[in-house]
Amino acid sequence: MASLFDNTDGGAEPPLSVSTAMKGGHFVTGATGFVGSSVVLELVRRTDDPIVCLVRSTGDDAAADGRLRMALKRAALACDAPELVSQVEERCSAVEGDLLAPRCGVDLRALPSLGMVWHCGASLRYEDEHKDAIWSTNVDGTANVLSLAQSARQLPFRYVSTAFVAGDRTGHIEEAAAPSDVRLNNWYERSKLAAERLVATSTLPDWRIVRPTIVIGHSRTKSTTSSSGLYGFVRGFRRFNSRVAQQLGDFLRHRPMRFFADPDCPINMIPVDAVARGLVTIGLAGDCGPRYYHLANVDPPRLGESLDMLCQELDLASPTYVSTDSAFTTIDRELDAELRFYRSYLSNAKQFDAAAAMAVVGKADLSWALNPDELRAYVRAYLATLDGRPQQPDQVVRTR
Ligand SMILES: NC(=O)c1ccc[n+]([C@@H]2O[C@H](COP(=O)([O-])OP(=O)(O)OC[C@H]3O[C@@H](n4cnc5c(N)ncnc54)[C@H](OP(=O)(O)O)[C@@H]3O)[C@@H](O)[C@H]2O)c1
After folding, report:
1. How remote is the CA of residue 196 from the centroid of ligand 1, in Å?
2. Is the CB of residue 302 less than 8 Å from the CB of residue 268?
3. Distance, CA of 325 to chain centre
4. What is the CATH number of the domain that holds 122?
5. What is the 31 CA–ligand 1 centroid distance (Å)?
6. Residue pLDDT, tens place only, 122-169
7. What is the span of the domain harbouring residue 274?
């Protein structure tokens, strides 16, 4: 069966056939989120199994179920696949629970027999002021999902991490456990690495860790439900510009902003449908050897060209790049403070090895030529959503 999110135009290699060894349903965390909802839709399309999703609720199971259905419907429409909605109704159900509760507060006896756990849930609040919430959700939460998987006959476990557990390393980043002395940039990265280590040292016999880079919208529709990563940066940049415009009018149309960044730094982004396809293919593949996989773009754009495009979209002068803040004006300093979280991602050039992932997933889903015009379509779709004018799939520029 072809993938829902088929990436056929670029000479895609078909993914390896999935394992038939797994028996039972799928247990998914984070299914109301950006990545998790796409993973559920991919499981709906690629398997015939029931899918049970852990969902927080303010009330009862019915409220959790309603939230899940709404999130999955939104995700199906965002990827222009309305035909999936009826399958979601039939095959997906919510179980109320919380990552923060022991075994997520789930009574396994009340669920259909499970065959695999997909842990996509996490806190992406990023800023260090939320460090306690980040840690408890991402580390304690992962421990709770692991203990659930262990108590359910040691279920196979698929953990969605991030390629940025590489911290401040530069150059070639291998698909392997991070070195013990890696220096991490923030509490989000620390929590994701601590969670990886819990998975890798658990008693579970079958675990895989899949690390996407920066996840962007759907490759065809460009639509996104995310406000993290690229989108958090765009939102912060635009918010800053609006503040300046209120006081100084169109000053920033003529005066280039200074960025503490390396214009040649690759910015590794990958569409959400490629992540969902890759994760499900890796997760369901028979014994494929490696435990760590990068879902990374082997052809990432450079920061300079991408930021130039973003400045055009925001009607700003092209930026200049600096390696010290000695020439910063007050405005530069304020912008730097607004986007401080992203600073480590705008330098420290990394090349993510993706050989293990490519051997399972094929090349097409790891090769996205995000030239400025291609990336512009993603940015425009997001800005339209921010402005409350969501684009219908057929209004969005299809560039692939
Ligand atoms: N987005 C990216 O660019 C990116 C890049 C690399 C890796 N990742 C990884 O991909 C995974 C998913 O990220 P995302 O972008 O999809 O994030 P997201 O849209 O913010 O979704 C997070 C999901 O986790 C759930 N969740 C959070 N706290 C919970 C709790 N205490 N109990 C139960 N569920 C909880 C949320 O449920 P609610 O709806 O109840 O809030 C939501 O479903 C994460 O592991 C992240 O580290 C993301």
Report:
1. 15
2. no
3. 31
4. 3.40.50.720
5. 8
6. 999 888 889 999 999 999 999 999 999 999 999 999 999 999 999 999
7. 25-220+268-298+350-368
